Amino acid sequence: MRQNTYLAPTLRDIPSDADVKSHQLMLRAGLIRQSTSGVYSFLPLGLKVLQKVENIIRDEMNRSGAQEMLMPSIQPAELWQESGRWDAYGPELMRFKDRHQREFALGPTHEEVITTIVRDDIRSYKKLPMTLYQIQTKFRDERRPRFGVLRGREFLMKDAYSFDQDFEGLDESYQKMFDAYTKVFTRCDLNFRAVEADSGAMGGKDTHEFMVLSNVGEDTIAYSDKSDFAANIEIAPVNVTYETSDEEQAELETIDTPGAKTIEEVSTFLSVAPSDCIKSMLFIVDEKPVLALVRGDHEVNDVKIKHHFDAEIVELASEEETKQTLQSEAGFLGPIGVNKEVTVVADHAVKVMVNAVCGANEKDKHMKNVNPDRDFTVSTYGDLRNIQIGDPSPDGQGMIQFKEGIEVGHVFKLGTKYSEALGATFLNDQGKAKPMVMGSYGIGVSRTVAAIIEEHHDDDGIVWPLSVTPFHVHLIPVNIKQDDQRELAEALYDSLNDKRYDVLFDDRAERPGVKFKDADLYGLPLRVTVGKKASEGIVEVKVRKTGELFEVHKDDLQQTIEKYVG
Ligand code: 9G3
Q1: Among 194, 134, 186, 138, which Cα is nearest to 159's?
Q2: Which residue is closest in CA terms to ligand 1's atom 8?
Q3: CA-based nearest residue to 106, from 69, 88, 79
């Protein structure tokens, strides 16, 4: 490809509204351009990488026995009403009306669509198991699109759906897909972990997220420093035995704590440790008030609260809900004397606390010498806190560390949630109609490109792994106006193209410095410079990844390229 007419505009400066490296570099290296918030165009250089990632995914999907198809983005509201999800999702679901005022959604995912396709055309157990997949644009009206294509509102996803006769079959389909994902992300040269995750509104029990370990990930992974335990902290179980204290229970007291709201402020004001305070947070769990208690040095985990009550919706109570329910504002909340409509739940760590401090449900007042069970009743204790760095790993091996993660894949065991809702049944070998047992499996294809850049870049630009690089060789004549340099560069361009190498030929009449800076930004594996020694047939090779720089004779160039790019 000749660069002079190639649409890959580079930017010298870091765009002010790009906060993470991958977003900055995708803009500066001319891979993408923003159309509107969360919506991007992939320019030619970016599309070449996107397609390389797609093809790695396609290759591993096909090897796993999955069949590729393509579903529409336009989904009738009726489908989502039938599955019960039309009202379950809020503004994130992009909805529109057609010319006849009929309601539709732009597909954020395709469980409903695929289940109706299979329902209508698969009747016999003989056709199962079957896994179908597509690579297609998804639409989700994210409240806060950010970090470029890492969190967009229109993005490319590979979504696959497996259909089995029973849960044993699903386990096999799930494992096949799990293994295929491991191969995909290994081939993309990503440092990833498959972590146990929360199935969210998807239902189903087993689910794993494939997380690329990174400093900009929006998820936090708790992992053991001594075993392969790893889980999204949303669900990472806490497995700690809290020792009881033999301290005498003292007389309950109300104390003035003017303006001391947070645990830090209260513990400083009263010179007690945060771990001697009780943090109370009011949630609305499926419309009912729940006061959740954790030790002052712990964090409440709302996903665990949702699972504790097996609830659909869990939200932190608003200011007015708090005032209405507890006649107090947040910062002074406590479990003592709350009216019976409020369910009080507490993390296991609270049970053994003695003479603790908690809010008095009165502005600027707290209670001290508070003792669970003596001074307030807890309806149930549970694992309601976030796991923390330094906690023992739940598997008993080693200690917990944290790492940020970019979720590039997510695999779910769905079970029969959609097949029952939509009537996708098959006749088993006894002629009995049974609901198909499903799994669903996603990879964020455009997000994976960004994750690869997050992991593979340096101060000068992107450093593409060979498996996804848009071109193999960047061929740069230092001065295109010099006949011997231009002629040798043209000859090498032709001979390398004949050898099926993808070559980007910088035929621009730009200063060498500009060409080399652009080359570093684009990050192609090998830079071949044709300069002063062109007349001797000598060219200079630079290996982008290592910075290695050496001269070779043009006759040895192909061998050199073979050595570095295969
Ligand atoms: C929606 C909206 C956003 C959503 C969903 C539905 C996430 C939704 C979960 C999944 C599950 C799997 C197949 C590929 C792998 C992931 N965000 N999810 O269902 F209406 Cl607006 O998408 N789907």
Answers
A1: 134
A2: 109
A3: 79
Nearest alpha carbon to residue 71 among 21, 125, 123, 111: 111
Measuring from each residue's beta carbon to the nearest atom of ligand 1, which residues come in under 6 Å? 89, 92-93, 108-109, 140, 159, 202, 410, 412, 440-442
Spell out the domain ranges in the chain.
14-69+110-236+402-453, 253-382, 473-565
Confidence of residue 118 (pLDDT cuts 50, 70, 90): very high
What is the sign, positive or negative, of the torsion defined by CA atoms of 391, 393, 394, 397?
Answer: negative
Fill in the amino acid letter for 399.
Answer: M
Residue range 223-232: average pLDDT? 89
> Could you identify the residue written with the tokens 């009912």?
288
Q: Which CATH superfamily is domain 253-382 in?
A: YbaK/aminoacyl-tRNA synthetase-associated domain (3.90.960.10)
Rounded to two decimals, the pTM is 0.86
Bond into 289 cis (ω within 30): no
- Cα 384 from Cα 58, distance rounded (Å): 40
Specify the pLDDT at position 229.
Answer: 87
Q: Return d(Cα 106, Cα 539) in angstroms, integer.
A: 53
Q: Which of ligand 1's atoms lies nearest the C-alpha of 140?
A: 21
